[in-house]
Amino acid sequence: MTASTGDRVRAWVRRRRAPLLHVAGDTGGDGPAVIMIHGIASSSVTFQNVLPLLEADHRCITIDILGFGKSPAPPDWDYTLAEHAAALDVTIRSLKLREPFVLVGHSLGSLIAVRYAARHPNGVKRLVLVSPPLYLPPETIGDRVDRAGMGAYFALYEFLRGNQDFTVRAAAALARIAPIKNVLEVTADNWVPFTRSLQNAIESQTTIADLAAVDAPVDLVYGTLDPFLAPGGLKIAERLRHVTAHRVQGNDHLVRPRLAEAVAAVAREQPTPDERG
């Protein structure tokens, strides 16, 4: 068995043995189910502004992704999109949902949601991608400005992965001023899931290809001031026939109240606040 074959076998075994994730909240009830998964270095508090808008008539389920929040953080995993999606699959199956559901993902959670929906077409009736970091290899981008911007993201993430003390301190400083308490956490305890998810799920992603394979309607919801969005990836995604973009004026990467209103609206298949005027 070659080294590469051995790596593939180990990755397959890990996916087959994916752990259950922490279900942070489940409102129960008979309403349509909406499952929400957060992004890197965060937890299900990400959606605290969304829940009050949906929980009266929807079954709202929030799940902490692999390695973050209160979910397991296996130290020997690579935290690829395949591994994240495998853990999500095990957890969703444990819920025993009887009807297709709306799947909402924020940031890295949106990439995981796309991979899950591409592999499980019968379960997802609508896919909502909030602030999705849709990245491509810079050399594949024709537009010079977009190519340079994409390269800057990769350089930044490589720097963050290589400088733990700086990254932990910077994350703590940002967390102190964030409008959502505990929305950002990078520590020694989650450093391995953080760096591996960054490198193996965000930097090394095939989300555009996964998105093209999704059968369900897809809504992109993002703020016009989001610093983590790559125009090159967004332009390609927005051209896909089953994708609808919803731009929220003045919002950054976090799910602030106005962005939360837009997320709730598309989950209900209604016009977003900016579209209503």
Detailed description of the structure:
By secondary structure, this protein is α/β, with parallel strands linked by helices. The chain has helices spanning 3-16, 51-54, 81-95, 108-119, 144-162, 164-177, 191-203, 207-212, 231-239, 257-267, 273-276, and strands spanning 23-26, 33-37, 59-63, 101-106, 124-130, 218-223, 243-248. The chain has a single domain, classed as Alpha/Beta hydrolase fold, catalytic domain (Rossmann fold, 3-Layer(aba) Sandwich). The protein has eleven helices and seven strands. Strands 1-3-2-4-5-6-7 form a seven-stranded mixed β-sheet, with helices on both faces. Helix 3 (81-95) packs across helix 4 (108-119).
Question: Topology, pairings included?
Answer:
Blueprint: H1 3-16, E1 23-26, E2 33-37, H2 51-54, E3 59-63, H3 81-95, E4 101-106, H4 108-119, E5 124-130, H5 144-162, H6 164-177, H7 191-203, H8 207-212, E6 218-223, H9 231-239, E7 243-248, H10 257-267, H11 273-276
Parallel strand pairs: 2-3, 2-4, 4-5, 5-6, 6-7
Antiparallel strand pairs: 1-3
Helix pairs in contact: 1-3, 3-4, 5-7
Strand content: 5-15%
Strand arrangement across the biggest beta sheet: 1-3-2-4-5-6-7
Helix content: 40-55%
Order of helices and strands: HEEHEHEHEHHHHEHEHH
The quaternary structure here is single chain
CATH H-level homologous superfamily name: Alpha/Beta hydrolase fold, catalytic domain
Coarse structural class: alpha/beta
**Uncertain residue segments:** none
What is the CATH C level class, in words?
A: Alpha Beta
Name the shape in a single word: globular
